[in-house]
């Protein structure tokens, strides 16, 4: 039999650490499964075992060290093969791009430190879909190959199970889709599976892999499995069937170089309900991903400028929690109810670590800013019980910007003030707004528009009693019970339904909506399970929220807000719709009290554009998708743009940004964001009795933003605006003190607006710094990058959608160099 037609028999033990059980049970099962695999290696001299997920190995290391040493020796021998390179087998749509980088960083470095090897093969056999930027992410993680199973053939047709998978930047990985299960089951059992693979190998003229072993709750290859394989090998004469590993399979494919297709696409779509199941864990994931990145950035800055110790081990623990929660049955929201108590605890610990690390850094920086005034002799609270202001000199408040570009955004200062000035003493407009407290008559805050330098800070001065005469706004926001309007845009709200009746771009003279917007549509999904198995769309509309109450909440020169409260059965939806001065962005804060079962809520935004196209964010990239109504995964934004109706040259569009949601559909220009769905916990079309419990009952809060624009989403800066929604400006109240830092600073400069810096952290070797950037618009870009506090400046050329990681040695005589996600050249 030709070498190219071998069937590689992959002994593995797929184990869900969480699914129909909690992580503690998964922890115990890992140890038992690994012991079983070691027993098989002792009993069958030709057996090879394959296993991914660094988290599993760490569990064994900490709880069964003798067994861990045995595994180490088998890995050195080559019979226990490490694959995957990631902390866990994650959901491959919902974690952020930087989260995938961290899976590689921490997973591969763990394998290298413990076993002297890194994974060459990406391995994700049970995840529900695979985003289109994964080939680049894999390549930059030291993995040139990928194995997956879903979507299966009935969900996505591929010309061949073996192919080159290409991402938008041009990166390619050799990829194999399993044509059957990752375990023993299948038509005809294990023997039937193997017979099928032999036929496919001979048909396609190249090798195939078939996986065997008891899976899901672990177990792995059994004695009976291996005896059967021995019998089949003897019957075949030992030729075509090989006890093997993914590494050996791909090495054979590289030698034989079969003629296989190149596929430039995402690998979707399986379990479309998982994009939206269990809203709480998804919202927590978005929040903690951004918090840890922000904490790292300012912790690094405080270490560089002020020698504050960098909390590397604490942040590592936080990331390990987050990566574990990325496991596909957790992130996909399809585990048992009790498991999500653990998810909440893991995210909570990481959020707390991030908060403490961030606070320490910000306070160290703010305390080191020179805010002293000549009149101050010593600190005293004679004037006010909360603020340290003396003699109408103002109180300094430091506002920080974690993003790599200048941000101008509304900032709420939690005191009622008479005036505010910037670091140069220039008065800024203010607005009295309702606070979240009701402390006697102390229930008001002050709103300002702050403009903060890129990855920097700025001191503003808050005055309790002394008015500061800011220039009058040329055209303040106009607000009444049915409309919001400024010099750029007019929004009209229907008083009966609460829907946005109109968004009119005043500068371009164009209507942006093709019908009503922000329409809360209730969809029936009794015919769906938790995963949405067999589903492609959720469009069986059975009702809409209505019976609206509409009232003015804020009415001022800087911002107007209209509150819309609408109802459906026992559920209540509250949307606070805001418009700021000199901005066309519509900001909406949502509180939903959801009491429906086997139903879904979508918010609809029909965009008025001809020959329209729809783009949306995926991890470290974007993708164009057909507007066919299919449920799809997305990250922080989705956009529909096209020609202004009746015109042939001018284009317009509308982007929908969010801070907590991951599922949506677009049909003929109508964007429908999936807000919530309420299936039964861990229901795979089971016997639905009166003991079942439904997801997402009760109150949840999130925000979304509408960005009307002329031209395309790239020119409108949608990537930046989406991050500004998700990464707010941060404030620290200060007092008077001497300091070595100025009252305003910019800590990064990137010359090209399409290049964003997403991460800045201490290098894992402790002897330098890591900054990660990517090109956001799908175009080539030459960028000059500077870090003033490090005294570093360099230039780099980015291909379209290219991710680059730069290592900045602490030794200034050493050059900045590019490294991969593992921080190796």
From TrEMBL:
The protein's name: Alpha-mannosidase
Occurrences of domain Glycoside hydrolase family 38 central (ranges): 270-347
Family note: Belongs to the glycosyl hydrolase 38 family.
Lineage top rank: taxon: Bacteria
CDD domains: GH38N_AMII_ER_cytosolic
Keyword Metal-binding found: yes
Source organism (scientific name): Paenibacillus thalictri
GO MF, one annotated term: alpha-mannosidase activity
GO biological process assignments: mannose metabolic process; oligosaccharide catabolic process
Keywords: Glycosidase, Hydrolase, Metal-binding
């Amino acid at each position: 039999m030709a070498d190219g037609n071998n069937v590689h028999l992959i002994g593995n033990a797929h184990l869900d650490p969480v699914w129909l059980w909690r992580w503690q049970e998964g922890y115990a099962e890992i140890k038992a499964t690994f012991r079983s695999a070691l027993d098989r290696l002792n009993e069958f001299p030709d057996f090879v075992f394959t296993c991914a997920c660094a988290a599993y190995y760490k569990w064994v290391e900490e709880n069964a060290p003798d067994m861990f040493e045995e595994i180490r020796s088998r890995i050195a021998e080559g019979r226990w093969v490490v694959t995957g390179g990631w902390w866990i087998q994650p959901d491959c749509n919902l974690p952020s791009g930087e989260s995938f980088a961290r899976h590689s960083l921490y997973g591969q470095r763990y394998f290298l430190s413990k076993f002297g090897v890194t994974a060459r093969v990406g391995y994700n056999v049970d995840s529900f879909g695979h985003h289109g930027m994964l080939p680049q992410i894999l390549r930059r993680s030291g993995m040139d190959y990928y194995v997956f199973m879903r979507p299966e053939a009935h969900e996505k047709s591929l010309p061949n199970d073996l192919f080159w998978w290409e991402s938008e930047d041009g990166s390619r990985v050799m990829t194999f889709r399993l044509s059957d299960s990752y375990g023993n089951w299948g038509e005809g059992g294990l023997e039937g599976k193997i017979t099928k693979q032999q036929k496919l190998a001979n048909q396609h003229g190249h090798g195939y892999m078939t996986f065997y072993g008891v899976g899901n709750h672990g177990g792995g290859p059994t004695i009976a499995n291996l005896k059967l394989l021995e019998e089949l090998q003897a019957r075949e004469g030992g030729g075509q069937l090989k006890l093997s590993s993914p590494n050996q399979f791909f090495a054979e494919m590289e030698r034989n170089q079969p003629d296989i297709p190149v596929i430039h696409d995402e690998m979707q779509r399986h379990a479309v309900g998982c994009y939206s199941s269990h809203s709480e864990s998804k919202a927590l994931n978005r929040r903690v991903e951004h918090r840890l990145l922000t904490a790292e950035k300012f912790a690094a800055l405080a270490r560089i400028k002020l020698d504050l110790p960098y909390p590397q081990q604490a942040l590592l623990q936080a990331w390990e929690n987050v990566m574990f929660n990325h496991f596909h049955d957790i992130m996909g929201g399809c585990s048992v109810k009790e498991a999500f108590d653990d998810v909440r605890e893991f995210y909570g610990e990481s959020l707390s670590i991030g908060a403490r690390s961030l606070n320490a850094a910000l306070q160290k920086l703010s305390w080191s800013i020179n805010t002293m005034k000549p009149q101050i002799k010593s600190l005293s609270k004679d004037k006010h019980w909360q603020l340290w202001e003396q003699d109408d000199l103002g109180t300094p408040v430091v506002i920080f910007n974690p993003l790599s570009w200048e941000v101008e955004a509304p900032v709420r200062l939690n005191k009622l003030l008479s005036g505010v000035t910037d670091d140069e003493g220039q008065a800024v407009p203010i607005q009295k707004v309702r606070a979240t407290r009701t402390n006697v008559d102390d229930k008001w805050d002050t709103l300002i528009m702050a403009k903060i330098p890129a990855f920097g800070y700025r001191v503003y001065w808050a005055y309790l009693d002394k008015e500061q005469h800011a220039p009058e706004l040329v055209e303040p926001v106009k607000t009444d019970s049915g409309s919001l309007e400024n010099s750029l845009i007019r929004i009209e709200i229907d008083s009966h339904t609460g829907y946005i009746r109109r968004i009119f771009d005043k500068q371009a003279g164009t209507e942006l909506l093709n019908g009503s917007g922000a329409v809360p549509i209730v969809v029936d999904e009794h015919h769906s399970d938790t995963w949405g198995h067999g589903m492609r769309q959720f469009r069986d509309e059975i009702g809409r929220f209505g019976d609206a109450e509409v009232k003015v909440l804020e009415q001022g020169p800087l911002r107007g807000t209209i509150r819309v409260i609408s109802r459906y059965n026992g559920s209540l939806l509250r949307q606070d719709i805001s418009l700021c001065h000199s901005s066309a962005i519509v900001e909406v804060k949502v509180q939903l009290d959801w009491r429906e079962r086997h139903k879904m809520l979508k918010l609809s935004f029909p965009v008025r554009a001809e020959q329209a196209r729809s783009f949306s964010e995926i991890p470290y990239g974007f993708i164009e998708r057909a507007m066919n109504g299919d449920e799809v995964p997305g990250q922080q934004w989705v956009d529909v743009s096209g020609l202004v109706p009746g015109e042939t040259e001018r284009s317009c569009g509308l982007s929908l940004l969010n801070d907590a949601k991951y599922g949506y559909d677009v049909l003929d220009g109508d964007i429908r964001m999936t807000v919530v769905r309420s299936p039964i916990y861990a229901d795979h079309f089971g016997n639905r009795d009166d003991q079942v419990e439904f997801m997402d009952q009760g109150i949840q809060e999130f925000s979304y933003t509408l960005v009307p624009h002329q031209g395309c989403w790239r020119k409108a800066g949608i990537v930046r605006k989406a991050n500004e929604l998700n990464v707010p400006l941060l404030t620290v109240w200060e007092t008077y003190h001497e300091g070595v830092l100025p009252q305003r600073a910019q800590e990064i400069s990137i010359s090209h607006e399409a290049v964003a810096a997403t991460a800045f952290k201490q290098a894992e070797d402790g002897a330098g710094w890591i900054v990660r950037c990517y090109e956001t618009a799908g175009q080539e870009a030459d960028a000059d990058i500077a870090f003033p506090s490090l005294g570093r400046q360099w230039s780099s050329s980015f291909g379209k959608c290219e991710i680059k990681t730069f290592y900045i040695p602490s030794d200034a005589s050493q050059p900045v160099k590019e490294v991969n996600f593992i921080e190796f050249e």
